[in-house]
């Protein structure tokens, strides 16, 4: 007759539970740092301590995970109307507002299509942007390629059922294979010979700042400048701490033009983050304790495609300045769709927010912010900075989503930087750039 297993006396735990408590103690100590690790070696956790440690461990794990915030097009930027859903309100505003005499809708330059982490080896993804359909794939060697989505044979979409074969993408319809580097057809399964002229369009592309970016030019001109790589990102000194995604119903030029609009900064962004994003309620004197100093200027040769913006945020409480809370942001706009915002604080460390703006449609922009920060700084700090950035961008979105573009605005002399910015930004348009009216006349509209 086998012996029945005995339960530990009340108030005592079995060896398995004890091992779990020790494991939790050491895991918690590892997350808290060296001092806690030394303390963990001096004592072991009891049942109540193990429960508390498990909860604290879960909390710390969640805090370490990158923040991810996705806002659909109708979620922010509109005033709710009684009896209407958010989507209905957004649709009504988009159809009824005056568009104005706008510049071309797709400027020339580098634009983000995907995050690098969103495309695994051997994977194909379709992206609709800039009035084009792209098939983006990563070959088995890890290199990214961007080609036209439609097969030149009979028009099948390579991103829908297509697969990666070595360095080629295979059409799901008849098995034609196109090389990702040259675009030439490499194989036709049922043909004796592959015609020399059989090829697909290849778009110049690269990876930088954790993004897959494509070069767009209406005249198919090769890239005239490169996207700079942040050294701290390339060397992994800074790690990804969060991503936010927003959609803006406006012309792409409205978004970077904010950099030169000095007057709007204190008026729109002066109220504290606590006053929210609904502009009907943000103008509360109770929450107004931020001051901003803003400068913008274009860069000289050979970087005329870049501009610089310096912002200094000051915190004022009861009329007193607290310099320890000041934050300096140095933003560099690279072309029409990329911005690198370098963050610097004497105690909270350094990092960068990478902003990308990609036109999905003539008046629909996909705006993505990704924050990278020193790995030795607690993750909640860059997450808070990214959250604060999202609050400010959502205030802007409420303006952008409801405004009309004015080609000849009524400006005063203090607004001179706006006109300078428009002249600088005009370099990204050319004679054949797609206009809003021309886009509407196509079948895709």
From TrEMBL:
It is found in: Membrane. One of its GO terms (biological process) is cholesterol metabolic process. The chain crosses the membrane at residues 20-39. GO terms for molecular function: 2 iron, 2 sulfur cluster binding; cholesterol 7-desaturase [NAD(P)H] activity; metal ion binding. Its EC number is 1.14.19.21. Keywords: 2Fe-2S, Iron, Iron-sulfur, Membrane, Metal-binding, Oxidoreductase, Transmembrane, Transmembrane helix. InterPro entries: Cholesterol_7-desaturase (IPR050584), KshA-like_C (IPR045605), Rieske_2Fe-2S (IPR017941), Rieske_2Fe-2S_sf (IPR036922). It catalyses: cholesterol + NADPH + O2 + H(+) = 7-dehydrocholesterol + NADP(+) + 2 H2O; cholesterol + NADH + O2 + H(+) = 7-dehydrocholesterol + NAD(+) + 2 H2O. Its cofactor is Fe cation. The keyword Iron applies. Residues 111-214 form the Rieske domain. One of its GO terms (cellular component) is cytoplasm. Belongs to the cholesterol 7-desaturase family. This is cholesterol 7-desaturase. It comes from Salvator merianae (Argentine black and white tegu).
């Amino acid at each position: 007759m086998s012996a029945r297993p005995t339960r530990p006396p009340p108030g005592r735990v079995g060896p398995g539970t004890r091992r779990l408590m020790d494991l939790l103690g050491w895991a918690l100590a590892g997350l808290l740092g060296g001092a806690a690790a030394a303390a963990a070696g001096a004592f072991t956790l009891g049942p109540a301590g193990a429960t508390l440690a498990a909860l604290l461990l879960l909390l710390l794990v969640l805090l370490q995970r990158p923040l991810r915030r996705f806002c659909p097009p109708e979620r922010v930027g509109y005033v709710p109307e009684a009896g209407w859903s958010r989507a209905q309100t957004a649709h009504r505003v988009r159809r009824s507002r005056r568009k104005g005499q706008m510049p071309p809708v797709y400027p020339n330059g580098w634009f983000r299509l995907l995050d690098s982490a969103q495309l695994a080896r051997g994977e194909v993804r379709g992206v609709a942007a800039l009035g084009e359909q792209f098939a983006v794939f990563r070959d088995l060697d890890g290199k990214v390629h961007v080609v036209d989505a439609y097969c030149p044979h009979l028009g099948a979409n390579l991103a829908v059922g297509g697969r990666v074969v070595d360095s080629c993408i295979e059409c799901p319809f008849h098995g034609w294979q196109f090389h990702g580097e040259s675009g030439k057809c490499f194989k036709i399964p049922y043909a004796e010979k592959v015609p020399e002229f059989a090829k697909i369009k290849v778009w110049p592309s690269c990876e930088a700042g954790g993004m897959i970016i494509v070069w767009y030019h209406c005249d198919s001109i090769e890239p005239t400048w490169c996207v700079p790589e942040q050294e701290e990102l390339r060397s992994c000194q800074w790690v990804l701490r969060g991503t936010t995604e927003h959609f803006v119903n406006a012309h792409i030029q409205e978004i970077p033009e904010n950099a030169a609009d000095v007057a709007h900064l204190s008026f729109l962004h002066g109220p504290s983050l606590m006053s929210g994003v609904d502009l009907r309620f943000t103008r509360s004197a109770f929450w107004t304790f931020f001051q901003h100093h803003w400068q913008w200027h274009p860069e000289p040769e050979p970087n005329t495609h870049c501009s610089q913006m310096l912002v200094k945020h000051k915190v004022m409480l009861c009329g007193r300045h607290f310099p320890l809370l000041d934050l300096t942001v140095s933003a560099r706009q690279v072309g029409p769709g990329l911005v690198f915002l370098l963050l610097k604080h004497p105690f909270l460390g350094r990092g960068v927010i990478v902003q990308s703006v990609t036109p999905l449609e003539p008046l629909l922009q996909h705006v993505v912010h990704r924050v990278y920060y020193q790995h030795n700084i607690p993750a909640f700090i860059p997450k808070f900075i990214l959250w604060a950035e999202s609050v400010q961008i959502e205030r802007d979105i409420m303006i952008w989503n409801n405004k009309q573009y004015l080609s000849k605005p009524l400006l005063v002399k203090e607004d001179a930087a706006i006109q300078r910015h428009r002249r600088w930004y005009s370099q990204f348009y050319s004679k054949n750039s797609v206009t809003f009216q021309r886009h509407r006349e196509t079948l895709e509209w």
